[in-house]
Specification:
alpha+beta; Herpes Virus-1; 3-stranded antiparallel sheet; 2 helices; 3 strands; globular; Znf_UBP; thiol protease
Length: 78
């Protein structure tokens, strides 16, 4: 597996907003979905990913959060 380093990771600033991420029990901050979740590394938002071709998956909340905030780094949970 090749690991790539993105320019965004070199300058990541995490917001001090008091958010504590629990080790389990995650759900989308907007729709409470419990699968296909992404953690934004800047503000700690936990949001669902894109809807899959077959209609399953998420409600696109993580992508919408990026378009709104421009916080570029997120990791898949689970």
């Amino acid at each position: 597996e090749i690991r790539r380093i993105t320019k965004h990771s070199q300058t990541l600033e995490q917001l001090v907003n008091g958010r504590k991420i629990p080790p389990s029990g995650w759900q989308c901050d907007q729709c409470e979905l419990k699968e296909n979740l992404w953690l934004n590394l800047t503000d700690g938002a936990i949001l669902c990913g894109r809807k899959f071709f077959d209609g399953t998956g998420g409600n696109n909340h993580a992508a919408e959060h990026y378009y709104r905030t421009k916080y570029p780094l997120a990791v898949k949970l689970g």
